[in-house]
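queue> pop job 88
queue> type: inverse folding (structure -> sequence)
queue> payload:
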């Protein structure tokens, strides 16, 4: 069972000490206990941000591996319908809400699954609110 949709910005708050907060700790516990669902894109986004942080010297390659191992242990399921919806539903939603197709992917998943969305992206929060998607803290 998945309790919510999380985007990469929310999950990446678990990976950097300067982004940690009580809210990110609570999100981690909620995902650990209740699960989450993400589009396949999420894995690429998380990996890319960690790689860029490694390139900038913010974290080491060992830190990247450790963080990915910890995230992999969480009950996060991948939605496999996203790709089939990219050129129609997701593109239309991105256009209507003024989002990138990447961000619209999370919103479409939350709408389709009837789940709250967790993101740190202000434009995505606003679009979620406009479309009636609950935004979890």
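queue> result:
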């Amino acid at each position: 069972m998945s309790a919510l949709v999380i985007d990469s910005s929310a999950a990446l708050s678990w990976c950097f000490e300067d982004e940690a907060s009580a809210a990110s700790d609570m999100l981690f516990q909620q995902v650990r206990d209740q699960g989450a669902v993400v589009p396949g894109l999420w894995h690429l986004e998380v990996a890319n941000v960690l790689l860029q942080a490694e390139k900038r010297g913010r974290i080491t390659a060992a830190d990247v591996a450790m963080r990915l191992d910890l995230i992999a242990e969480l009950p996060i399921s991948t939605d496999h319908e996203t790709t089939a919806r990219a050129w129609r539903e997701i593109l239309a939603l991105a256009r209507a809400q003024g989002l990138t197709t990447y961000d619209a992917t999370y919103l479409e998943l939350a709408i389709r699954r009837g789940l709250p969305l967790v993101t740190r992206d202000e434009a995505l929060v606003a679009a979620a609110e406009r479309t009636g998607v609950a935004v979890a803290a």
